[in-house]
Amino acid sequence: MMIIASADGSGAAAESRAPVAIETESALPMISEPMVQPLPQDSVTGAAAVTDQDAAPALSLAELVASQPQPAELSRELNCLATAIYHEAKGETLNGQLAVGRVIVARSKSGRFPDSYCGVVFQPSQFSFVRGNSLPTGPRTAKQWKNAVAVAQIAHEGTWQSPVEGALFFHAAYVSPGWRLTRMARVDNHVFYR
Length: 194
What we know:
Strand order of the largest sheet: 1-3-2
CATH class of the domain at 61-163: Mainly Alpha
Order of helices and strands: HHHHHEEE
Radius of gyration: 27 Å
Distance between the termini: 49 Å
Number of helices: 5
Number of strands: 3
Helix content: 25-40%
CATH topology of the domain at 61-163: Arc Repressor Mutant, subunit A
Strand content: 5-15%
CATH superfamily of the domain at 61-163: Cell wall hydrolase SleB, domain 1
Structural class: mainly alpha
């Protein structure tokens, strides 16, 4: 089928025009200057988000964990994240702990779950260590707790990528819930999905 359009009666006239070069104003000059902006306050830790451009990047997750400060007191949100990492994965490798932490961070940002770490952790039937509206306490001086705090800071800041980055769900490897989700990988004693 062919459609023919006509300009008759419309006032439009077809003209034959050859391409013509149009002079434009010169492009804006490029200026390369450092731009200084105030750093936003971190909503979880309350501190200014600072990065040291001159610091050498960590060569391993263990090195990054070892370099994390151990604050005397944690914000409520960071405490929820560290407690979840501690109780879910304290006996696992740092990669396994980070994977658990990054799932909680990803959930809080997904729009499908509560928008805070504590909201995710306290969501009913999600974490077996949560009893009612309180978190269990653990030995705050133990190396495993200090690792959980460091891993929570890394997970929150996103300074090291999890082996299952983007996962929103996980379960212990010894159970088989039959979820119809995309399985990503098993890391230590947990299986992760998106």
